[in-house]
Task: structure prediction
Amino acid sequence: MLPILYSFRRCPYAMRARWALLQAGLMVQWREIELKAKPAAMLEASPKGTVPVLVLADGSVIDESLAIMRWALQKADPCGVLEAEDSALLIEENDRSLKHHLDRFKYTDRYPGALKEDHRQAGLVILRSWSERISRNGWLLADRMALADAALWPFVRQWRLTDAAGFDADPHLAPLREWLMRFLDDPMMERLMQRADPWLSGGMQPIFPADAIAIPMDQPLFHLALESDWQAALERGDYRVSTRGLSLEQVGFIHLSWQEQLQATFDRFYADAGAVLTLRINPKLVSAPLRADAIHTGVLFPHLYGPLPIASVVEVSPFSSLPAC
Ligand SMILES: N[C@@H](CCC(=O)N[C@@H](CS)C(=O)NCC(=O)O)C(=O)O
Result:
């Protein structure tokens, strides 16, 4: 049974949890909620009443967004987000300080005595320090994405939504703006912000991501590989090429096909590639998450969100085209 996620589309904590689920190639039963009418089943699982809440198949409950991120990324972390520098201090600065000022800047009328401009200035000090870090490192902590980057962008997005003119005009924030756009321009964002009607007990149960399906375990999967890439994989012990010329780390998953999709994949990407091998994969021997995702045309393709173990490849043969009829 898939885990259950109680979520609220615009909540930045829920957004970062959904980001990690997408990144890790996972699927969940998606229960969109309204903050004003939380479902009894959610409050039973987590009486503190905040989203996101993840209820696992064994009944255990994870009700902090960061813990959901870690849970998901421990299952699959194709871009090595958890391996990067220690993110704890920056996440704490966000969750304690930036969020404090953001709430009081955004909803000043809900906080008696709060002065909008004071909170705007205090928030800007933090945002500018993050911008400075990005101009130095490329990302918040290093030259690659860390957990802090993935955990903070929804809050920076919310700040910008509150004060787009100020955010966009501030020269000190230029690196932070470019960093934010890396997340917002990612095709993943459309899936992350998919809409759903509030869940009703006994009603239809959608899946998140809404355009994904589970991969049947009784059908073989296929991958076209350059002979040289397969030889390199045999030497290192696993295969980490996503598609021709791109690595698993660059793309975030390995492109696979079902048998009937092989010919079209060959024609599109490998027709001029010389010797191409067909790897036949037993999905039951793969440990990283598998998920079928829709490409831009709406067609579903299977994807593997981690390295392909050599032992899961049950047959290797030269690719041969189907005879044209
Ligand atoms: N520390 C929690 C905070 C989550 C949180 O505060 N979520 C807000 C929505 S953005 C919420 O559920 N608030 C409850 C309410 O408004 O009733 C986490 O990281 O998951």
